[in-house]
Amino acid sequence: MAEEQFQERTEQATPRRREKAREEGKVARSLELNSAVILCLGSAAIYFLGPLLIRQLQQFMIFIFREAPTMSADYDSLLALLSTRILTFFYLMGPILVILVVVAYGINVMQVGFLVTGKPLEPKPEKLNFANGIKRLFSGRSLMELLRDTVKLIVIGFVGYKAISSQMDTFYLLADNSVTVFAGAMGTMALKTTLQIGAVMLILGILDYAYQKYDYEKSIRMSRQEIKDEYKDTEGSPQIKSRIRQIQREMSRKRMMQDIPKADVVVTNPTHIAVALKYNPDEMDAPMVVAKGERLIAQKIKEIAREANVPVVENPPLARALFSMCEVGSLVPAKLYRAVAEVLAYVYRLKGAEV
Q1: What secondary structure does DSSP assign to 1-38, as a single string?
Q2: pLDDT in tens, the chain (355 residues)
Q3: Rounded Cα–Cα distance for residues 328 and 321 (Å)
């Protein structure tokens, strides 16, 4: 048992193991990829919808400064003003928010599919174990995450610095321009910097997803003993299955023995093989094998046949052919029709029947 417990997990996870891990919320998912996609597509949405949002903001500011001297300062007037303008703001921001929600949901579905489970939120006492917490803190996974985050911070910082420094010459030339031009240029610079950082984050996110996929596959690997135990749980132990097959064979043999008295003839080898045949021209297209067996079972078939006054005919070639080519309940193949017909004709003559 000790050897089985410490077996290395070298085998790929079975479908049942994967499904169980999925039910527990254990899936290969990269939060870095989520953030990168949301940042890139969110920036793109702002780029296309930004001009409309800015125009509405300008109109709002113009309205406020133009109408301020004549506005009433009472509660109802201010409430109506704020309600109108806030609704306009959310109307403008709505498409951007919808896009971000769809993107956030879509990137998660692309990674793990549709999954709803509350298992990760269930309280687990082992998480409160201080020793286990220290082990997790200094585990290989934690060190890998620390290295990943450090590299990500350095790379993003470098890209951000290069993106900003490359636009500094343009920034210095904005001093003599109007506020509108200055604000527009700053917005363009910020968007360009955000897209460059987002592109780098997207590459890092794809690499992180590949690592998460590798780490997930590694974490759900199984030992050979675990695969055997799972097979026993799903299919049953070999001993139980063998016992079931034995019972099924016994039941089948019992039914077979009960059908022997209904047979028309038993063809024998003469001692090793016995095959019982039945033929009803009105119901069957060909004679049917109702029982067959060898050695002790053959002796039992002949014994039951004699007790039921079923003729027993010795025909070794035909007996061997029927035994090897036919199963219980199957019809005699065409190539054996002639030989079987001769036997049945002989039996009918014995019974005084007309053929």
Answers
A1: -HHHHT----BPPPHHHHHHHHHTT-----HHHHHHHH
A2: 444 455 677 778 888 888 888 877 788 888 888 888 888 888 888 777 777 777 777 777 777 777 667 766 677 776 776 777 677 777 777 777 888 888 888 888 888 777 766 666 666 666 666 676 677 666 777 787 788 788 888 988 888 888 888 888 777 777 777 777 777 778 788 888 888 888 888 888 888 888 888 888 888 888 888 877 777 766 655 666 677 677 767 777 777 788 788 888 888 887 788 888 888 888 888 888 888 888 888 888 888 888 888 888 888 888 888 888 888 888 888 888 888 888 888 888 877 654 4
A3: 14
The CA angle 212-217-219, to the nearest 5 degrees, is 90
pTM above 0.70, yes or no: no
Burial of 295 (0-12, 13-18, 19+ CB in 10 A): exposed
Closest CA to 190 of 168, 157, 209, 164: 164
Residue 121 to residue 141: CA distance in whole angstroms? 21
Burial class (CB in 10 A: 0-12, 13-18, 19+), 229: middle
Sign of the four-CA dihedral 236, 238, 243, 245: positive
- Count Cβ atoms within 10 A of the Cβ of residue 288 and give its class: 0-12 exposed, 13-18 middle, 19 or more buried: buried
Q: Measuring CA to CA, how many Å separate 150 from each of 17, 178, 231? A: 34, 41, 44
| Element housing 313 (H / E) | strand 312-314
- Burial of residue 61 (CB within 10 Å: 0-12, 13-18, 19+) is exposed
Which tokens in the block code for residue 9?
């997990």
Residue whose token pair is 């951007």: 96
Q: Which residues contact 322 (CB under 8 A, 6 or more apart)?
A: 267, 275, 277, 289, 292, 332, 336, 340
Contact 190, 156 (CB under 8 A): no
- Alpha-carbon distance of 212 to 218, in angstroms, equals 10
Q: Which residue type is seen at 237?
A: S
